[in-house]
Amino acid sequence: MSFHARWEGLWQALGKPLPAGLLGALLAAYGEPQRHYHTLQHLAECFAHLDEAQAPAGQAREVELALWFHDAVYDVHVRDNERRSADWALRDLGAAGLPPGLCERVAFLVMSTAHDAPAASPDAQLLTDIDLAILGAPRARFAEYERQIRAEYAHVLAALFAGKRREVLQGFLERDRIYQTAHFATRYEQAARANLAQAIALPG
């Protein structure tokens, strides 16, 4: 399904007219030149995982809105990308006529993709599992992902990047569970742990 068709179907399901210019702004954001992983490729993979998970319709709509916005702002030089992305969602979804409660829930979901605490709701668990599904990708795709992340941090010295990257990956590996939903745990937990262990073991 194309991004345009998906966007139109989502707003039809929400019972609202298409917000003028919002899709173009989001697609442009994911196409920014400094991005190598946090791109339309990642967004398309997220939607594929959402469809695979077969979430209930009501849950899927809010999670899908959050997916559209979860990396809408991405700048490796700052630490508040999730907050900026959530603020964008809150502002533009409200302007498009969606109820305040729904907008706030979507913004909350976007914030959960900071992955700095266990997800606090079933929707957040689904969203964060989708965002982390790349960790359990086939080896070739996981290796590509690692190269893409390195490209986004090309300005960081190799030795410093290698150390920080190992810390991040080790943090996921040390969790009791990487994935919080049964669907993703069953399909990706084992592969994710193998990918992470291999990446950590690679020489810097």
Structure, described:
InterPro entries: HD_phosphohydro (IPR009218). This is N-methyl-D-aspartate receptor NMDAR2C subunit. Keywords: Receptor. The protein is an all-alpha fold. The protein has a single domain (3-201), classed as Hypothetical protein af1432 (Orthogonal Bundle). The chain is built from 10 helices and no strands. Helix 4 packs across helix 6, helix 4 packs across helix 7 and helix 9 (158-173) packs antiparallel against helix 10. 28% of the residues are buried. The mean pLDDT is 96.
Query: Strand portion, in percent?
Result: under 5%
State the name of the first-level CATH class. Answer: Mainly Alpha
Average residue pLDDT: 96
The arrangement of helices and strands along the chain is HHHHHHHHHH
Number of strands: 0
Q: Could you describe the largest sheet, including whether it forms a barrel?
A: none
Going by CATH, the architecture would be Orthogonal Bundle
Fold blueprint:
Layout: H1 3-14, H2 22-30, H3 40-53, H4 57-69, H5 81-95, H6 100-112, H7 122-132, H8 139-152, H9 158-173, H10 182-201
Descriptive key words:
204 residues, mainly alpha, Hypothetical protein af1432, 67% helix, 0% strand, HD_phosphohydro, receptor, N-methyl-D-aspartate receptor NMDAR2C subunit
Q: In a nutshell, what does this entry contain?
A:
The chain has 204 residues and is mostly helical.
